[in-house]
Amino acid sequence: MSTEIIAFTPDYESAPPFQCQTSIAEGLITLSLTWNMAAERWYMRVQNSSGDTWLYRPLIGSPMTNDINLISTISTSKIVYRADNSAFEITL
């Protein structure tokens, strides 16, 4: 089991403000995060390598003592967002 750490560093001059590519058990994915002004929170879109959206959901931070797997409904891999560190943990 390997874990990749990706720092969440939004660039407010870009559209979307944050985007990265990583691999999960099902293949290469793109994570895109945008700010929703009405909800006043970040939303995460997960797309496959063909650009099909697999998941769109609010970004939920996990405490250091517990993991909230943001992609449990679409993958056997795990993506956890640590708000304390402003980083994603991707575990295959």
UniProtKB/TrEMBL annotation:
<protein>
    <submittedName>
        <fullName>Uncharacterized protein</fullName>
    </submittedName>
</protein>
